């Protein structure tokens, strides 16, 4: 009853193109369109949840960061000038909010404990499962900035320039972070070891 | 053909992640691919990075929060902020009530009347028309009751009028405002409930666990 107006707005536009998302933002800026806001929120919720989890933000705090992010989207929609992709703007807000929260220790890291290598089952016959466990181990060894560069590139599929805009750093810094992340992963991921040949 | 052809191993190596994810600009892709074609080390690294990309995407997303519930919280926060602002609502910057939310207002007004009756606070009755022409009664609350401990809450879409009435009665709550465009109400605690030790915090904690309520928080006084 009371919430039907919100419930019936049917979110889910996980792969909404930037142009469509910009149209939603314009509706929010122009007429404070609740339906457009709900749709945009839904299209980013899972993406941001995953990204924030990778940043070691606890599950119960992820919602707070996402809602803080979309509070900014709601209040500043009219100020977005389109100089960058909308996704770059929104994810960048979320990233900075999460960093600030982590720095203030308001949001706690998931764990400072070193990854337990013994937890990876040597008896597993599922190669993908074992690789996934090693990857999880490798990711815990990466500083959050490197982890984010990796996640933004491989999971969200951003270009180097977009990653730089989100992380608010030069393009060369992104390349350096990914270079170091790759080196670290190679040290902990057996499946990657030896894949690269000798230098040409 | 690109005007800039670095074709150096180090530069190509640095760009391999974006060759792997398909987001390398055409101007770079041409020379990087040309380098990879004749560099065994870069071919191996590209394969390795594609493996990493595949694995990262296979990694299951963390167990998520309830998206709708999260949105309800955000919307309630926005509405609280907007309603706290000077009453310029409807003007530029204010909320634009959708047709559906206006319908909810009428439904909710009916709930208020059904649930609490006019006698509780000596309401002054007003008469107004619903969008469908149905006449309902809306209640006014004495000003002194508006300062009572209060909670802001949103009912579950499937909650029945009877269930809402029962919940509110048991908790000594009376709705004094709402709904907002997301369906949030403000309800005050009765004097009896306060006298028996109930507070906005304790009541919000209790009703937030009720299946008929999707959001509840104490209102700061």
Task: Give a structural overview.
- The complex is a heterodimer of chains A (200) and B (221).
- Chain A has 200 residues and is mainly α.
- In chain A, 63% of the residues lie in helices and 0% in strands.
- The model of chain A is unreliable at 1-16, 107-115 and 120-124 (pLDDT under 50).
- Chain B is an alpha+beta fold and 221 residues long.
- Chain B contains eight helices and six strands.
- In chain B, the strands form two sheets. A four-stranded antiparallel β-sheet of chain B has the order 4-5-3-6, with helices on both faces. Chain B has a two-stranded antiparallel ribbon with strand order 1-2.
- In chain B, a hairpin with a 5-residue loop joins strand 1 (125-129) and strand 2.
- In chain B, helix 1 (9-20) packs across helix 2, helix 1 (9-20) runs parallel beside helix 3 (40-58) and helix 5 (99-116) packs across helix 6 (161-171).
- Chain B is rod-shaped.
- The relative contact order of chain B is 0.11.
- The chains are: A mainly alpha (200), B alpha+beta (221).
- Chains A and B meet through helix 1, helix 3, helix 4, helix 6 and helix 7 of A and helix 1, helix 3, helix 4 and helix 5 of B.
Short description:
Chain A is mainly α and 200 residues long.
Largest sheet strand order of chain B: 4-5-3-6
How many beta-strand runs of chain A?
Answer: 0
The computed structural class of chain B is: alpha+beta
Outline the biggest β-sheet of chain A. none
Distance between the termini of chain B: 68 Å
Spans of at least 5 consecutive residues with low confidence of chain A: 1-16, 107-115, 120-124
The number of helices of chain A is 9
The protein's oligomeric status is heterodimer
Largest interface, with counts of residues having CB < 8 Å to the other chain, equals:
A-B, 61 and 72 residues
Estimate the helix proportion of chain A, in percent: 55-70%
Shape of chain B: rod-shaped
Helices and strands of chain B, in N-to-C order? HHHHHEEEHEEHHE
- Measured as a percent range, the helix fraction of chain B is 40-55%
Shape of chain A: elongated
